[in-house]
Design brief:
555 residues; alpha/beta; four-stranded mixed β-sheet; 20 helices; 10% strand
Protein backbone atom coordinates (compact mmCIF):
# COMPACT_ATOMS: atom_id res chain seq x y z
CA UNK A 1 0.00 0.00 0.00
CA UNK A 2 1.32 3.41 -0.87
CA UNK A 3 2.21 5.80 1.92
CA UNK A 4 -0.51 8.17 0.77
CA UNK A 5 -3.08 5.49 1.47
CA UNK A 6 -1.89 5.22 5.06
CA UNK A 7 -2.46 8.91 5.41
CA UNK A 8 -5.93 8.17 4.07
CA UNK A 9 -6.32 5.50 6.76
CA UNK A 10 -5.22 7.95 9.44
CA UNK A 11 -7.54 10.67 8.18
CA UNK A 12 -10.54 8.43 7.55
CA UNK A 13 -10.17 6.93 11.01
CA UNK A 14 -9.84 10.46 12.23
CA UNK A 15 -13.05 11.49 10.45
CA UNK A 16 -15.02 9.74 13.11
CA UNK A 17 -12.10 9.18 15.31
CA UNK A 18 -9.41 11.96 15.48
CA UNK A 19 -8.34 14.30 18.23
CA UNK A 20 -6.10 17.26 18.26
CA UNK A 21 -3.19 19.01 19.82
CA UNK A 22 -3.05 22.81 19.93
CA UNK A 23 -4.79 24.46 22.84
CA UNK A 24 -5.87 27.51 20.89
CA UNK A 25 -8.79 29.68 21.92
CA UNK A 26 -12.21 28.34 21.10
CA UNK A 27 -13.78 29.91 18.05
CA UNK A 28 -17.44 30.71 17.94
CA UNK A 29 -19.44 28.94 15.26
CA UNK A 30 -19.27 32.15 13.24
CA UNK A 31 -21.74 34.45 11.61
CA UNK A 32 -24.27 33.03 9.21
CA UNK A 33 -23.14 33.36 5.59
CA UNK A 34 -24.69 35.89 3.32
CA UNK A 35 -27.59 34.52 1.31
CA UNK A 36 -25.86 35.25 -2.00
CA UNK A 37 -22.99 37.20 -3.51
CA UNK A 38 -25.04 40.13 -4.63
CA UNK A 39 -24.45 39.25 -8.26
CA UNK A 40 -27.14 40.15 -10.73
CA UNK A 41 -28.39 38.05 -13.60
CA UNK A 42 -28.49 34.63 -12.02
CA UNK A 43 -26.01 32.32 -10.31
CA UNK A 44 -22.29 32.96 -10.49
CA UNK A 45 -20.49 30.30 -12.53
CA UNK A 46 -17.41 28.78 -10.87
CA UNK A 47 -15.37 26.05 -12.49
CA UNK A 48 -13.87 23.84 -9.79
CA UNK A 49 -11.04 21.31 -10.08
CA UNK A 50 -11.43 18.61 -7.39
CA UNK A 51 -10.76 14.97 -6.63
CA UNK A 52 -13.82 12.74 -6.58
CA UNK A 53 -14.10 9.32 -4.95
CA UNK A 54 -16.12 6.37 -6.22
CA UNK A 55 -18.95 6.99 -3.74
CA UNK A 56 -19.32 10.69 -4.58
CA UNK A 57 -20.85 12.55 -7.49
CA UNK A 58 -20.05 16.21 -6.87
CA UNK A 59 -22.55 17.37 -9.48
CA UNK A 60 -25.50 15.75 -7.66
CA UNK A 61 -24.07 15.83 -4.15
CA UNK A 62 -26.58 17.29 -1.69
CA UNK A 63 -24.03 19.63 -0.12
CA UNK A 64 -23.00 20.86 -3.58
CA UNK A 65 -26.63 21.70 -4.20
CA UNK A 66 -27.09 23.42 -0.85
CA UNK A 67 -23.89 25.42 -1.25
CA UNK A 68 -24.94 26.45 -4.75
CA UNK A 69 -28.22 27.80 -3.42
CA UNK A 70 -26.71 29.36 -0.31
CA UNK A 71 -24.02 31.30 -2.20
CA UNK A 72 -25.73 31.74 -5.57
CA UNK A 73 -23.19 29.54 -7.36
CA UNK A 74 -23.40 27.47 -10.51
CA UNK A 75 -20.69 24.83 -10.08
CA UNK A 76 -18.97 23.34 -13.10
CA UNK A 77 -16.87 20.42 -11.88
CA UNK A 78 -13.58 19.20 -13.32
CA UNK A 79 -12.80 16.03 -11.38
CA UNK A 80 -9.87 13.68 -10.92
CA UNK A 81 -9.69 10.35 -9.14
CA UNK A 82 -8.35 9.98 -5.62
CA UNK A 83 -5.07 8.61 -6.94
CA UNK A 84 -2.44 11.12 -5.86
CA UNK A 85 -0.08 10.66 -8.80
CA UNK A 86 -2.83 11.03 -11.38
CA UNK A 87 -4.44 13.97 -9.56
CA UNK A 88 -1.13 15.83 -9.33
CA UNK A 89 -0.36 15.21 -12.98
CA UNK A 90 -3.78 16.49 -14.08
CA UNK A 91 -3.44 19.60 -11.93
CA UNK A 92 -0.01 20.34 -13.36
CA UNK A 93 -1.26 19.79 -16.92
CA UNK A 94 -4.14 22.19 -16.34
CA UNK A 95 -1.75 24.89 -15.13
CA UNK A 96 0.82 24.34 -17.88
CA UNK A 97 -1.82 24.42 -20.62
CA UNK A 98 -3.34 27.68 -19.42
CA UNK A 99 -6.74 25.98 -19.42
CA UNK A 100 -7.14 25.99 -15.66
CA UNK A 101 -10.28 26.48 -13.54
CA UNK A 102 -11.48 29.36 -11.39
CA UNK A 103 -10.96 27.38 -8.20
CA UNK A 104 -8.98 24.40 -7.00
CA UNK A 105 -10.55 22.51 -4.06
CA UNK A 106 -8.17 19.71 -3.13
CA UNK A 107 -7.47 17.08 -0.47
CA UNK A 108 -4.01 17.23 1.14
CA UNK A 109 -3.40 13.49 1.18
CA UNK A 110 -4.38 13.21 -2.49
CA UNK A 111 -2.70 16.30 -3.95
CA UNK A 112 -2.40 19.96 -3.13
CA UNK A 113 -0.36 23.04 -4.01
CA UNK A 114 3.02 23.08 -2.31
CA UNK A 115 4.35 26.30 -0.83
CA UNK A 116 6.75 26.55 -3.78
CA UNK A 117 3.78 26.14 -6.16
CA UNK A 118 2.00 28.97 -4.38
CA UNK A 119 4.98 31.30 -4.65
CA UNK A 120 5.65 30.40 -8.28
CA UNK A 121 2.11 30.75 -9.58
CA UNK A 122 1.23 33.56 -7.20
CA UNK A 123 4.12 35.71 -8.36
CA UNK A 124 3.26 34.90 -11.97
CA UNK A 125 -0.25 36.22 -11.34
CA UNK A 126 -1.95 32.87 -12.00
CA UNK A 127 -3.08 32.59 -8.38
CA UNK A 128 -4.93 35.44 -6.75
CA UNK A 129 -3.85 36.90 -3.40
CA UNK A 130 -6.73 36.32 -1.00
CA UNK A 131 -5.84 38.87 1.70
CA UNK A 132 -8.43 41.50 0.79
CA UNK A 133 -11.14 38.95 0.09
CA UNK A 134 -10.57 37.30 3.47
CA UNK A 135 -10.52 40.64 5.26
CA UNK A 136 -13.84 41.67 3.74
CA UNK A 137 -15.78 38.44 3.30
CA UNK A 138 -14.25 35.75 5.53
CA UNK A 139 -14.28 36.69 9.24
CA UNK A 140 -14.02 33.06 10.31
CA UNK A 141 -10.95 32.41 8.17
CA UNK A 142 -9.43 35.56 9.62
CA UNK A 143 -10.20 34.38 13.14
CA UNK A 144 -8.43 31.08 12.43
CA UNK A 145 -5.38 32.98 11.18
CA UNK A 146 -5.43 35.13 14.30
CA UNK A 147 -5.90 32.27 16.77
CA UNK A 148 -3.64 29.54 15.36
CA UNK A 149 -0.06 30.79 14.91
CA UNK A 150 1.28 27.69 13.12
CA UNK A 151 -1.66 27.75 10.73
CA UNK A 152 -1.00 31.42 9.98
CA UNK A 153 2.69 30.77 9.43
CA UNK A 154 1.83 28.05 6.93
CA UNK A 155 -0.72 30.25 5.15
CA UNK A 156 0.91 33.69 4.82
CA UNK A 157 3.76 33.75 2.28
CA UNK A 158 7.00 35.64 3.01
CA UNK A 159 5.80 38.51 0.80
CA UNK A 160 2.73 38.89 3.02
CA UNK A 161 0.27 37.45 0.52
CA UNK A 162 -2.11 34.55 0.98
CA UNK A 163 -2.03 32.66 -2.32
CA UNK A 164 -4.04 29.73 -1.01
CA UNK A 165 -5.50 28.34 2.19
CA UNK A 166 -4.57 24.97 3.74
CA UNK A 167 -6.96 22.90 5.77
CA UNK A 168 -6.78 23.50 9.52
CA UNK A 169 -6.53 19.93 10.79
CA UNK A 170 -5.29 19.51 14.34
CA UNK A 171 -5.35 15.73 14.54
CA UNK A 172 -4.21 14.98 18.07
CA UNK A 173 -3.11 11.42 17.57
CA UNK A 174 -1.44 12.34 14.25
CA UNK A 175 0.55 15.01 16.10
CA UNK A 176 2.45 12.30 17.95
CA UNK A 177 2.58 9.62 15.30
CA UNK A 178 5.69 7.78 16.55
CA UNK A 179 4.02 5.69 19.23
CA UNK A 180 4.87 2.21 20.42
CA UNK A 181 2.04 -0.31 20.85
CA UNK A 182 2.77 -3.33 23.05
CA UNK A 183 0.95 -6.65 23.23
CA UNK A 184 -0.67 -6.29 26.66
CA UNK A 185 -1.94 -9.86 26.66
CA UNK A 186 1.61 -11.16 26.33
CA UNK A 187 3.05 -8.64 28.75
CA UNK A 188 0.57 -9.48 31.48
CA UNK A 189 0.85 -13.23 30.89
CA UNK A 190 4.59 -12.94 31.46
CA UNK A 191 4.15 -10.75 34.55
CA UNK A 192 5.95 -7.76 33.04
CA UNK A 193 5.16 -4.21 34.13
CA UNK A 194 4.75 -1.48 31.51
CA UNK A 195 8.32 -0.61 30.50
CA UNK A 196 9.33 2.99 31.15
CA UNK A 197 13.07 2.89 30.42
CA UNK A 198 15.18 1.74 27.51
CA UNK A 199 16.53 -1.12 29.65
CA UNK A 200 13.05 -2.29 30.69
CA UNK A 201 11.87 -2.16 27.09
CA UNK A 202 14.78 -4.34 25.97
CA UNK A 203 14.05 -6.83 28.77
CA UNK A 204 10.40 -7.06 27.73
CA UNK A 205 11.34 -7.73 24.10
CA UNK A 206 13.76 -10.42 25.26
CA UNK A 207 10.94 -12.08 27.21
CA UNK A 208 8.69 -11.95 24.15
CA UNK A 209 11.41 -13.66 22.14
CA UNK A 210 12.35 -16.40 24.58
CA UNK A 211 9.32 -17.21 26.75
CA UNK A 212 6.82 -18.39 24.08
CA UNK A 213 4.04 -15.92 24.94
CA UNK A 214 1.84 -17.15 22.07
CA UNK A 215 1.99 -20.63 23.61
CA UNK A 216 2.53 -22.65 20.45
CA UNK A 217 5.81 -24.18 21.52
CA UNK A 218 7.73 -22.49 18.72
CA UNK A 219 10.22 -19.62 18.78
CA UNK A 220 8.25 -17.72 16.13
CA UNK A 221 7.45 -14.51 18.02
CA UNK A 222 8.46 -11.19 16.45
CA UNK A 223 9.34 -8.99 19.44
CA UNK A 224 9.31 -5.63 17.60
CA UNK A 225 8.45 -4.67 14.03
CA UNK A 226 7.58 -1.68 11.90
CA UNK A 227 7.62 -0.42 8.35
CA UNK A 228 9.12 2.27 6.13
CA UNK A 229 6.23 4.71 5.59
CA UNK A 230 5.65 8.09 7.22
CA UNK A 231 2.95 7.38 9.77
CA UNK A 232 4.94 6.57 12.87
CA UNK A 233 5.80 3.06 11.69
CA UNK A 234 9.58 3.45 11.72
CA UNK A 235 10.81 2.08 15.09
CA UNK A 236 14.03 4.08 15.27
CA UNK A 237 12.58 7.48 16.35
CA UNK A 238 10.86 5.92 19.37
CA UNK A 239 14.08 4.14 20.36
CA UNK A 240 16.30 7.18 19.75
CA UNK A 241 14.16 9.59 21.76
CA UNK A 242 15.61 8.27 25.01
CA UNK A 243 18.99 9.53 23.82
CA UNK A 244 18.39 12.56 21.59
CA UNK A 245 15.39 14.14 19.89
CA UNK A 246 14.49 12.45 16.61
CA UNK A 247 11.85 14.27 14.57
CA UNK A 248 11.72 11.44 11.99
CA UNK A 249 11.89 13.98 9.16
CA UNK A 250 14.74 16.50 9.16
CA UNK A 251 16.99 15.44 12.08
CA UNK A 252 17.32 19.15 12.87
CA UNK A 253 17.12 20.89 16.23
CA UNK A 254 17.40 24.43 17.54
CA UNK A 255 20.29 25.20 19.86
CA UNK A 256 19.59 28.64 21.35
CA UNK A 257 17.83 29.59 18.14
CA UNK A 258 20.57 28.20 15.89
CA UNK A 259 19.64 25.40 13.51
CA UNK A 260 21.75 22.30 14.03
CA UNK A 261 21.57 18.58 13.31
CA UNK A 262 21.35 15.85 15.92
CA UNK A 263 22.71 13.23 13.53
CA UNK A 264 26.41 13.89 14.18
CA UNK A 265 26.21 14.09 17.96
CA UNK A 266 27.49 11.61 20.54
CA UNK A 267 23.91 11.11 21.76
CA UNK A 268 22.87 10.02 18.26
CA UNK A 269 25.70 7.51 18.20
CA UNK A 270 24.61 6.18 21.62
CA UNK A 271 21.03 5.80 20.38
CA UNK A 272 22.23 3.85 17.37
CA UNK A 273 24.27 1.62 19.69
CA UNK A 274 21.13 0.88 21.72
CA UNK A 275 19.12 0.04 18.60
CA UNK A 276 21.99 -2.15 17.40
CA UNK A 277 21.99 -4.05 20.68
CA UNK A 278 18.32 -4.88 20.16
CA UNK A 279 18.94 -5.90 16.57
CA UNK A 280 21.93 -8.08 17.48
CA UNK A 281 19.82 -9.86 20.08
CA UNK A 282 17.15 -10.66 17.48
CA UNK A 283 14.62 -8.33 19.10
CA UNK A 284 13.96 -6.11 16.06
CA UNK A 285 12.46 -7.65 12.94
CA UNK A 286 14.90 -7.01 10.05
CA UNK A 287 11.87 -6.38 7.87
CA UNK A 288 11.05 -3.30 9.92
CA UNK A 289 13.69 -1.44 7.88
CA UNK A 290 12.56 -2.65 4.45
CA UNK A 291 8.94 -3.84 4.38
CA UNK A 292 5.85 -2.00 3.25
CA UNK A 293 2.59 -1.65 5.14
CA UNK A 294 1.01 -4.83 3.75
CA UNK A 295 3.93 -6.96 4.88
CA UNK A 296 3.85 -5.33 8.31
CA UNK A 297 0.16 -6.08 8.72
CA UNK A 298 0.62 -9.69 7.65
CA UNK A 299 2.78 -10.14 10.74
CA UNK A 300 0.15 -8.51 12.96
CA UNK A 301 -2.71 -10.54 11.47
CA UNK A 302 -0.91 -13.87 11.12
CA UNK A 303 -3.66 -16.48 11.19
CA UNK A 304 -1.79 -19.50 12.56
CA UNK A 305 -0.51 -17.84 15.73
CA UNK A 306 -0.16 -14.35 17.11
CA UNK A 307 3.37 -13.21 16.28
CA UNK A 308 3.79 -9.53 17.09
CA UNK A 309 4.95 -8.33 20.48
CA UNK A 310 5.32 -4.59 19.84
CA UNK A 311 4.60 -2.44 16.82
CA UNK A 312 5.50 1.12 15.91
CA UNK A 313 2.70 3.19 14.46
CA UNK A 314 0.39 6.17 14.63
CA UNK A 315 -2.44 3.80 15.54
CA UNK A 316 -2.75 0.00 15.83
CA UNK A 317 -5.05 -0.48 12.83
CA UNK A 318 -1.97 0.10 10.68
CA UNK A 319 -0.49 -3.24 11.72
CA UNK A 320 -3.42 -5.29 13.04
CA UNK A 321 -7.07 -5.55 12.05
CA UNK A 322 -9.40 -3.87 14.53
CA UNK A 323 -13.02 -4.79 15.07
CA UNK A 324 -15.33 -7.16 16.94
CA UNK A 325 -14.31 -10.15 14.82
CA UNK A 326 -10.57 -9.39 14.77
CA UNK A 327 -8.64 -11.88 16.94
CA UNK A 328 -5.75 -9.59 17.92
CA UNK A 329 -7.03 -6.03 17.50
CA UNK A 330 -7.78 -5.51 21.20
CA UNK A 331 -4.41 -6.77 22.44
CA UNK A 332 -2.24 -3.68 21.87
CA UNK A 333 -1.86 -0.65 24.10
CA UNK A 334 0.52 2.28 23.78
CA UNK A 335 3.36 2.68 26.23
CA UNK A 336 4.91 6.04 27.21
CA UNK A 337 8.09 7.41 25.64
CA UNK A 338 11.10 5.62 27.10
CA UNK A 339 13.42 7.29 29.55
CA UNK A 340 16.99 6.81 28.38
CA UNK A 341 20.33 8.10 29.58
CA UNK A 342 19.77 11.56 28.09
CA UNK A 343 16.10 12.18 27.38
CA UNK A 344 12.45 11.17 27.50
CA UNK A 345 11.18 12.70 24.26
CA UNK A 346 8.19 12.12 21.99
CA UNK A 347 8.27 13.07 18.31
CA UNK A 348 5.90 15.93 17.46
CA UNK A 349 4.56 16.97 14.08
CA UNK A 350 2.07 19.78 13.48
CA UNK A 351 -0.70 17.84 11.72
CA UNK A 352 -1.89 20.44 9.22
CA UNK A 353 -0.09 20.11 5.91
CA UNK A 354 1.79 23.13 4.57
CA UNK A 355 0.64 24.29 1.16
CA UNK A 356 -2.92 24.98 0.04
CA UNK A 357 -6.09 23.11 -0.88
CA UNK A 358 -8.22 26.22 -1.63
CA UNK A 359 -6.72 28.26 -4.47
CA UNK A 360 -8.38 30.90 -6.67
CA UNK A 361 -6.96 31.67 -10.10
CA UNK A 362 -7.04 34.75 -12.30
CA UNK A 363 -9.78 33.08 -14.36
CA UNK A 364 -12.28 33.73 -11.57
CA UNK A 365 -14.56 36.72 -12.03
CA UNK A 366 -14.93 39.25 -9.23
CA UNK A 367 -18.31 37.71 -8.36
CA UNK A 368 -16.84 34.20 -8.39
CA UNK A 369 -14.04 35.27 -6.08
CA UNK A 370 -16.47 36.64 -3.52
CA UNK A 371 -18.77 33.62 -3.71
CA UNK A 372 -15.91 31.14 -3.38
CA UNK A 373 -14.38 32.92 -0.38
CA UNK A 374 -17.78 33.10 1.33
CA UNK A 375 -18.14 29.36 0.78
CA UNK A 376 -14.68 28.81 2.26
CA UNK A 377 -15.60 30.96 5.26
CA UNK A 378 -18.71 28.86 5.83
CA UNK A 379 -16.52 25.76 6.06
CA UNK A 380 -14.52 27.57 8.76
CA UNK A 381 -17.58 27.55 11.03
CA UNK A 382 -18.78 24.72 13.21
CA UNK A 383 -22.09 24.47 11.38
CA UNK A 384 -20.45 24.63 7.99
CA UNK A 385 -17.90 22.01 8.95
CA UNK A 386 -20.59 19.63 10.14
CA UNK A 387 -22.64 20.06 6.97
CA UNK A 388 -19.81 20.14 4.43
CA UNK A 389 -17.61 17.42 5.87
CA UNK A 390 -20.05 15.08 7.59
CA UNK A 391 -23.30 15.40 5.63
CA UNK A 392 -26.93 15.82 6.51
CA UNK A 393 -28.12 16.28 10.08
CA UNK A 394 -30.23 13.38 11.29
CA UNK A 395 -28.96 11.14 8.53
CA UNK A 396 -25.16 11.33 8.71
CA UNK A 397 -24.74 12.99 12.10
CA UNK A 398 -26.89 14.16 14.99
CA UNK A 399 -26.82 16.64 17.84
CA UNK A 400 -25.79 15.39 21.29
CA UNK A 401 -28.33 13.49 23.34
CA UNK A 402 -28.60 12.91 27.07
CA UNK A 403 -25.85 10.58 28.19
CA UNK A 404 -23.49 11.37 25.30
CA UNK A 405 -19.89 11.97 26.35
CA UNK A 406 -17.40 14.03 24.39
CA UNK A 407 -14.01 12.69 23.50
CA UNK A 408 -12.60 15.19 25.96
CA UNK A 409 -14.81 14.37 28.91
CA UNK A 410 -14.39 17.86 30.34
CA UNK A 411 -16.16 19.62 27.44
CA UNK A 412 -19.70 19.66 26.11
CA UNK A 413 -20.25 17.24 23.22
CA UNK A 414 -20.85 18.76 19.78
CA UNK A 415 -22.08 15.96 17.53
CA UNK A 416 -22.26 12.22 16.96
CA UNK A 417 -21.43 10.70 13.60
CA UNK A 418 -23.99 8.13 12.50
CA UNK A 419 -22.46 5.01 11.01
CA UNK A 420 -23.69 3.87 7.62
CA UNK A 421 -25.85 0.78 8.13
CA UNK A 422 -24.47 -2.40 6.62
CA UNK A 423 -25.43 -2.73 2.98
CA UNK A 424 -26.70 0.84 2.66
CA UNK A 425 -25.45 2.90 -0.28
CA UNK A 426 -23.27 5.89 0.70
CA UNK A 427 -25.38 9.03 0.83
CA UNK A 428 -23.44 11.37 -1.47
CA UNK A 429 -24.34 14.10 0.99
CA UNK A 430 -20.99 15.68 1.92
CA UNK A 431 -17.65 16.74 0.49
CA UNK A 432 -15.82 14.68 3.08
CA UNK A 433 -12.10 15.38 3.36
CA UNK A 434 -12.34 18.05 0.68
CA UNK A 435 -14.13 20.18 3.31
CA UNK A 436 -11.87 19.65 6.36
CA UNK A 437 -11.18 23.35 6.77
CA UNK A 438 -11.95 23.85 10.44
CA UNK A 439 -11.05 20.91 12.64
CA UNK A 440 -9.03 22.29 15.55
CA UNK A 441 -8.80 20.66 18.94
CA UNK A 442 -11.74 22.61 20.29
CA UNK A 443 -13.93 21.04 17.60
CA UNK A 444 -12.61 17.50 17.74
CA UNK A 445 -12.61 17.43 21.52
CA UNK A 446 -16.42 17.65 21.27
CA UNK A 447 -16.94 14.55 19.14
CA UNK A 448 -19.13 12.02 20.89
CA UNK A 449 -17.33 8.76 21.60
CA UNK A 450 -18.44 5.65 23.39
CA UNK A 451 -17.49 5.22 27.06
CA UNK A 452 -18.51 1.57 27.08
CA UNK A 453 -15.41 -0.46 28.09
CA UNK A 454 -16.57 -3.22 25.75
CA UNK A 455 -16.29 -0.82 22.80
CA UNK A 456 -12.94 0.75 23.75
CA UNK A 457 -11.00 -1.60 21.50
CA UNK A 458 -13.48 -1.51 18.62
CA UNK A 459 -14.57 1.29 16.32
CA UNK A 460 -17.16 2.98 18.60
CA UNK A 461 -14.39 3.73 21.11
CA UNK A 462 -11.33 3.69 18.89
CA UNK A 463 -10.70 7.41 18.96
CA UNK A 464 -10.91 7.43 22.75
CA UNK A 465 -8.30 4.68 22.73
CA UNK A 466 -6.10 6.84 20.51
CA UNK A 467 -6.61 9.92 22.65
CA UNK A 468 -5.61 8.03 25.79
CA UNK A 469 -2.53 6.75 23.99
CA UNK A 470 -1.57 10.20 22.77
CA UNK A 471 -1.96 11.66 26.26
CA UNK A 472 1.13 9.61 27.15
CA UNK A 473 3.16 11.52 24.55
CA UNK A 474 1.68 15.01 24.47
CA UNK A 475 4.03 17.76 25.57
CA UNK A 476 7.10 15.54 25.66
CA UNK A 477 8.61 16.83 22.43
CA UNK A 478 11.88 18.69 22.73
CA UNK A 479 11.31 22.37 23.49
CA UNK A 480 13.93 23.01 20.82
CA UNK A 481 12.20 21.03 18.07
CA UNK A 482 12.62 22.49 14.59
CA UNK A 483 9.26 23.73 13.14
CA UNK A 484 9.98 22.78 9.54
CA UNK A 485 6.27 22.76 8.67
CA UNK A 486 6.07 26.54 9.18
CA UNK A 487 8.97 27.48 6.89
CA UNK A 488 8.59 28.81 3.37
CA UNK A 489 11.18 28.02 0.69
CA UNK A 490 13.14 30.74 -1.08
CA UNK A 491 12.19 30.26 -4.76
CA UNK A 492 15.71 31.25 -5.81
CA UNK A 493 17.27 28.38 -3.87
CA UNK A 494 14.34 26.01 -3.32
CA UNK A 495 15.30 23.33 -5.84
CA UNK A 496 18.90 23.19 -4.63
CA UNK A 497 17.84 23.19 -0.99
CA UNK A 498 15.30 20.41 -1.59
CA UNK A 499 17.92 18.27 -3.30
CA UNK A 500 20.40 18.96 -0.51
CA UNK A 501 17.85 18.08 2.14
CA UNK A 502 17.03 14.84 0.34
CA UNK A 503 20.68 13.90 0.00
CA UNK A 504 21.43 14.61 3.66
CA UNK A 505 18.36 12.88 5.11
CA UNK A 506 18.88 9.87 2.82
CA UNK A 507 22.50 9.70 3.95
CA UNK A 508 21.50 9.84 7.62
CA UNK A 509 18.82 7.18 7.20
CA UNK A 510 21.03 4.86 5.15
CA UNK A 511 23.90 5.09 7.60
CA UNK A 512 21.60 4.61 10.58
CA UNK A 513 20.38 1.37 9.01
CA UNK A 514 23.93 0.25 8.29
CA UNK A 515 25.09 1.00 11.83
CA UNK A 516 22.09 -0.79 13.40
CA UNK A 517 22.37 -3.89 11.21
CA UNK A 518 26.17 -4.09 11.48
CA UNK A 519 27.01 -3.28 7.88
CA UNK A 520 29.05 -0.43 9.36
CA UNK A 521 30.86 -0.37 12.68
CA UNK A 522 29.99 2.40 15.12
CA UNK A 523 33.53 2.45 16.50
CA UNK A 524 35.59 2.34 13.31
CA UNK A 525 33.21 4.00 10.82
CA UNK A 526 31.66 6.82 12.87
CA UNK A 527 34.27 9.46 12.04
CA UNK A 528 34.02 8.79 8.31
CA UNK A 529 30.23 9.00 8.56
CA UNK A 530 30.48 12.43 10.20
CA UNK A 531 32.99 13.52 7.55
CA UNK A 532 30.55 12.37 4.87
CA UNK A 533 27.90 14.69 6.27
CA UNK A 534 30.34 17.58 6.02
CA UNK A 535 31.15 16.61 2.43
CA UNK A 536 27.45 16.95 1.62
CA UNK A 537 27.81 20.61 2.69
CA UNK A 538 25.94 20.20 5.94
CA UNK A 539 27.11 23.68 6.98
CA UNK A 540 25.57 25.23 3.87
CA UNK A 541 22.34 23.34 4.37
CA UNK A 542 22.10 24.46 8.00
CA UNK A 543 22.67 28.05 6.89
CA UNK A 544 19.81 27.73 4.38
CA UNK A 545 17.51 26.34 7.05
CA UNK A 546 18.61 29.08 9.46
CA UNK A 547 17.66 31.75 6.93
CA UNK A 548 14.27 30.12 6.41
CA UNK A 549 13.70 29.89 10.15
CA UNK A 550 14.75 33.50 10.75
CA UNK A 551 12.29 34.62 8.07
CA UNK A 552 9.41 32.54 9.44
CA UNK A 553 6.55 33.74 11.58
CA UNK A 554 7.03 30.98 14.18
CA UNK A 555 9.75 31.56 16.76
Amino acid sequence: MKASRWLLVGLLISMSLLVVSCAAPAQAPGAAPAADTGAAGGPVKITVFSPQGPDTDLATNSFSQEAAEMFNIQFEWQTTTMDGNSAKEQRQISLASGDYPDLYLLIPWVDQFTQLDLLKYGQQGVLLPLNDLIAEYAPNVQAALDNYPSFKAMTVAPDGNIYGVPQLIECYHCSYANKMWVNTKWREALGIEVPTTTEEFAAMLEAFKTQDPNGNGQADEVPLSGSIEDYGVRPLPFLMNGFVYNDDRTFLILNDGQVDTVANKAEWKAGLAYAKSLYDAGLIDPGAFTQNAEAYKKIGDNADAQLLGAGAGMHPAIFVTVGPEAPYGADYDAIPPLTGPNANYATYLYPSVAGATFVLTNKASAEAQVAAVKLLDYMFTQEGQLRAHYGEEGRDWRRPEEGDVALNKSVEPIFFQISLPAGETPHNSSWGAMAQYFQPKVFRDGWVQSVDPAEYYNWPGYERRLQDATDLYAGKESPDHFPFWALWPDPATADAAALQRQNITDYINQNALQFVTGAKNLDSDWDSYVAGLDQLDLAGYLATMQAAYDASAVK
